[in-house]
Amino acid sequence: MSDFPEIRKGDGSGNELYRTCPQCGRDCEPEPFEAGDGEGIRIGFSCPVHGVHTVIDPFEESR
Fold first, then answer.
1. What is d(CA 20, CA 17) in angstroms, rounded to the nearest whole number?
2. Are strands 41-47 and 29-34 parallel, antiparallel or unpaired?
3. Is 20 within 8 Å of 27 (Cβ atoms)?
4. Which terminal CB of the chain, N or C, has fewer other CB atoms within 10 Å?
């Protein structure tokens, strides 16, 4: 067993489809933005060809 922490990408569920463009299968870049009206931030995943396809709230469970 290693003394180094485990580094995970995504939500830990193993389902990283929200990071993949459903049209072309490209990996999408995360783009943080303000949700407005004091609602905090959201993360949009944007395909370089097809634009934003998924928006998540990384703090949804703590609101």
1. 5
2. antiparallel
3. yes
4. N
CA dist 31 and 16 (Å) reads: 16
Task: Report the alpha-carbon angle 56-42-48, nearest 5.
Answer: 75
**Token pair 């990996």: residue:** 27
Contacts of 62 (CB under 8 A, 6+ apart): none
Please tell me the pTM assigned to this model: 0.62
pLDDT tens track for 19-51: 888 899 888 889 998 887 777 889 999 999 999
Residue carrying structure tokens 């922490």: 5
